[in-house]
Input
Amino acid sequence: MTAVLRAEGLGKRYGKHWALTDCTLDIPTGHVVGLVGPNGAGKTTLLNLACGQLPPTAGGITVLGGRPGGSPAQLAKVGYVAQDTPTYAGLSVAEHLKLGARLNPGWDDALARHRIERLGLRPSSRAGKLSGGQRAQLALTLGLAKRPELLILDEPVAALDPLARREFLQGLMEAAVEQQLSVVLSSHLVSDLERVCDYLIVLVDSKVQVAGELEKLLATHHRLTGPRRDPARLPADQHVISASHTDRQSTLLVRTQAPIHDPAWTVGQISLEDLVLAYMSKPADTHRRPTLEVQR
Amino acid sequence: MIEFHLDERSGLSPYLQIVRQVRQALRLGLLREGDRLPTVKEVVAQLAINPNTVLKAYRELEHDGLVAARPGVGTFVTATLVDATLAAHGPLRQELRRWLAKARRAGLDEESIEALFMTTFRTTAQEEIA
Output
């Protein structure tokens, strides 16, 4: 199966500042990929590299087997909905569709019109007069009618109220089925991504902390509680992500492929939010490689 | 046709919630043989969840022999769960009552009984998987 996104030692530097370093990923097609991390972690940089709006400073990246932005065919395969789902305030809904048709060779006009009608948007309304949710849906429509194989969305629901957020994700998931799209979307909130994603990348401090299929991530991370213990003395295949101790008790979050047999531990399941927060609060470790690809 | 819902605080993965809701509907007779399940597209458009979640749930139901996918048409119920185990409920309940009475006589309070039951239930379930 071809990879939707493959990166090898990918990095991007602005002046002296590395916005993304040593990013290695191999994501198969057919997933809805969540890119999560705090603001300023490098999410937008990674997405811009993937759609070819930025050239890498180091390493390489291929998207659907090609160099991002490398050819008209490549541009047609990848749709991009930028941060805050931008539209042109002065243009009407109909004019947005006309623009989309003009700019995209594979434009599916019937799809665009059908979506606009279902959303109840008047073609004559100016984008500036639409609600945030309607504007987001218009931007999504433009992205979908381009008929891409991969749709990249940067923080698409961050500014939306809960209802508009749900409606946006409903539309996105429906389109993912209908058009057999691969999707990559970023958010700084796990709750936005939990339902819709089946693959997760956690990006903190310009580095990929963990990436893998959601279910596998959840199945390979455990919370251990038990009598106080030095985390350095755990079996070699148990990687400690976070640890806290009282004078008697230790609570660890570990990643391991193997089951935990030590009877001293009470083993608990963790939620996706716990998992992401543990990686976000993990102290920077310069010696160990932080890229923890979960094996398929 | 049934409609699914997700309880985010149930602690169960969304795919498992869908599997259980179908089984429950079969048990209650809300779904009968020949009924069509909602399409993957219908489910994701309603719940805003990942399409693979629905596919996985339907595959598991198919594996259990409860539904069958007809390509291009939909996924249909092929079996029923109604009454299959009902006859066994009575005697099992009686045994459970006797056991509960025994546990109380031994001095266990409600919390201890529940904890004992749950840990035993989980260990046995894990042993069966292993």
